[in-house]
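Hi P.,

Sorry for the delay on this. The queue was packed all week, but I finally got your sequence through. Input first:
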Amino acid sequence: MRARADRCPGVLRPWVADDGLLVRLRLVGGRLPVAALERLLRVSAEFADGSVYLTKRANLQLRGLPGHGGQLTPDVVAALASTGLLPSRSHELVRNILVSPQTGYAGGRVDLRPVSARLDALLCGDPRLAHLPGRFLFVLDDGRGDLIDRTTDAGLVALSGAQAQLRIGENWGAVVAISDAAERLAALAAAFQAARGSGPDAPWHIRELPNPLAPVIAADPRLPAPSGPLPYGPVPGGSHVPVPGGILTPEQARSLPVHTELVVTPWQGVFIPDAQETNP
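Then the structure:
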């Protein structure tokens, strides 16, 4: 077992890199309002290297930011907060929620956007969960199989429009109602936080606990087969635009089709919903 706390970066806990400070901004399910992206690109142009970096968890990073003593200066923090991508300073490091990018737009068994939004609200509303490790990850697959083989701490895979099976570390958990799923996932996170203890050697992941966090259940036969990453190009519900190297430059951003919201994917791309689609 490691003997150090995780150092996943955030706005208030940047990573000190050779080219300056690096920060990460969490997106719930990769959902990114275009206005927020435009503002973030302006912040990067003013304070960083001008680009926005996409992560494997469908989050965003900026590099080369100025700071003092390993912390961002107040003007940079204020500029980043003005994007709207820092809704909770106390919980910024734990809002790690990966969701099937096309959910609610095309395919899948259920729209998981309301579930992920509710889960985010529950996380940010519980002071205990502000102390989750920054590595702790929720993965929500809407039943299409695109994220079923993605390593997770707590998650679910939709079995129908009304039910999902929980994922608990490396094991399968109970079959639950979609309407209760966010609460069940938040409860798992709270149970993990209580079980892991404290100190530099506390586990980062559920799979590292010495005992199962919940009863292990057999995989439901309705679970989908893995479908693999979303291909680039036209796809049901929109288009998946590749971002080479995960580096979104201002020029690339300007070339994206016009839409009010984009979805950052965990495959170095951006899903652009069809223009006629609307968000809940």
